[in-house]
Amino acid sequence: MPRADSGLRHAVQAYLPKPQWLWTPIETGATHQGVPDSFWAHEPTQTHGWIEHKATNGWSVNVRPHQISWLERHVRAGVRCHLLVRASGAGSANHRGDALWVVRGSAVRSLAEAGLNGLPGDAVLGRWYGGPRDWNWTALQGILTHDR
């Protein structure tokens, strides 16, 4: 059975590797629902935050209500939170291939309700096509460590 994120978490950790990036995978479904699936810390900038990894074959992204609640509460508290969405099909913009969307955590409700193509312009912090080798990992690093 394929992972719910289509291997996105693994790709992110491979392209933003240790020792600068410290990654903690989170699997808390039985203890506390809604917690994103990765906590990260970036040693050089002394920043940290949360990422929820998702995958879709179209525009809609499955975000559960408890995930929305968790992300909204933590964003309001000033915590860095982002959603990374690996999109194929329609979500990859006219089927141009494997796309990575970087979405502000504060836009989680819009993402859940309207999908990738219904997000307000300021919700999308980055979008790259062609698969992990072609995605702009330097730009993603800057987004994660400087955006709230």
What does this structure look like?
With 148 residues, this protein is an alpha+beta fold. The chain has one domain: Trna Endonuclease, Chain: A, domain 1 (3-Layer(aba) Sandwich), CATH 3.40.1350.10. The protein is 25% helix and 26% strand. The protein contains four helices and six strands; from the N terminus they run αβββαββαβα. A six-stranded mixed beta sheet has the order 1-2-3-4-5-6, with helices on both faces. It is globular and about 35 Å long. The protein starts with 7 loop residues before the first helix and ends with a helix.
Shape: globular
Rg calc: 14 Å
The CATH C-level class name: Alpha Beta
Contiguous runs where pLDDT drops below 50 for at least 5 residues: none
Q: What CATH architecture do you see?
A: 3-Layer(aba) Sandwich
Q: What is the makeup of the main sheet?
A: 6 strands, mixed
If you average the pLDDT, what whole number results? 90
Structural class: alpha+beta
- Number of helical elements: 4
Task: Summarize the SSE layout with pairings.
Blueprint: H1 8-15, E1 21-25, E2 38-42, E3 47-56, H2 65-76, E4 81-87, E5 99-104, H3 108-114, E6 124-129, H4 137-146
Parallel strand pairs: 3-4
Antiparallel strand pairs: 1-2, 2-3, 4-5, 5-6
Short description, anyone?
25% of the residues lie in helices and 26% in strands. With 148 residues, it is α+β, with helices and mostly antiparallel strands. The chain starts with 7 loop residues before the first helix and ends with a helix.
List keywords for this structure.
148 residues; alpha+beta; Trna Endonuclease, Chain: A, domain 1; six-stranded mixed β-sheet; 4 helices; 25% helix; 26% strand; globular
